[in-house]
Amino acid sequence: MSEATCDRSSESVRVVVRPDPGRSSYWRAAVREGFDEAMSSPCHGGVAYLDLPKLRLICATLQAQTPVLLLADVPVACDAGDISALHDAIDAAPAAQAIVSVPEGADLCYTKLSHPRIALVPRSLGIDTLATLIADRAQRMNVVGEQAHGKPDPPIHTDALTGALDRRGFIARLGRAILSNTSGQPSAAVVFLDVDDFKSINDTLGHETGDRVLQVVADRLRHCLRDIDGQAREPDAIARLGGDEFCVFIDGVASSHEAFSVAARIADAFVDPVGVGSHTLPIGISMGVTLVDPEHTTPEAVLRDADTAMYEAKRAGKARFRVYDERLRLAARRQARLENDLRGAISRDEFAIVYQPIVRSEDGNPVAFEALLRWKHPTKGVMLPARFLEVADASGVLADLTEWIVSHAIQQMSIRRDRYSW
Q: Which of 145, 167, 259, 260 is least enclosed by beta carbons within 10 angstroms?
């Protein structure tokens, strides 16, 4: 059942068509969050929840310059008729923008749906990322409407402390890059930066000094990016994601060698110490670099890979950089599988404790026991803690595992004490 309303007496048109029940909450949550980010109310246009057969009819009823954001699911069995309907709908409404969710493996849709006002997103796209894209598209339409009425542009997503983009703004920028790359080849690079030992700066010199260090980091990044390869860079190439984490977007980087050169150039920018008031502070920057390639279907996937490379740099000794490569990709997949196995290992009773006695040298009698954890993995065999404790800590399983060890060790020692009269 669908419902549509159209107010022709004003510039603002709201069209609502209820989607398939299985997808309604997904779209509704993303739209609610997206419009909260884009504007206080959906002015200069409305939002349409549309299935493809309704698109041509709805768009034909709109005034030519009415800005409307169309949201649609392409069916799994996408055919030429669906594609034609969507193109006709967009062409019938020159001021419309569309975000279209495409099922994985629908190659026909990706190759034939190309249109400057249609953004294609995978069906598995997270709600937060979809909300950011909705906010970005809605804000673009709002800018057009405001400029047409002589009103100022709305603000973009910026970090108040450094003037760089914030996380949402950077995800929107990254999302546009992913959607616009149709070459099948890497098109850009992302550098994930973290200020080494930043907490100690805040703890010893105060948050005001720490804030000034973050501002200097952002300034050095801007200066460094202005003349990489002699090219001017877009103002949205730098973002502060939060705390002491920054990201840099470099368009036009197509190889690991180029990405390595960019990271080396950024590293050179932090060789000199930072002067803050009466303090001269050496600043170490750990960086992870990843190419934005066709395997990245969401901004989160890009940030995940860059973050993985950055932590690899930290483990190697800080103040250095690592480029995400196939070795790291395989290691990340192995860790993800191990983390997934760990989450159910306690309930599946896969852990065991073995005891190593500590004996008195005089008579050889045991005076204590050391409890040693073992994981009886169903496919990897018996695993020592060194192979999985770090993953357990990172995944939040360690607290439950520690509780299990303590309770089982106490229970088993109590049984042995009663049995052997210790």
A: 260
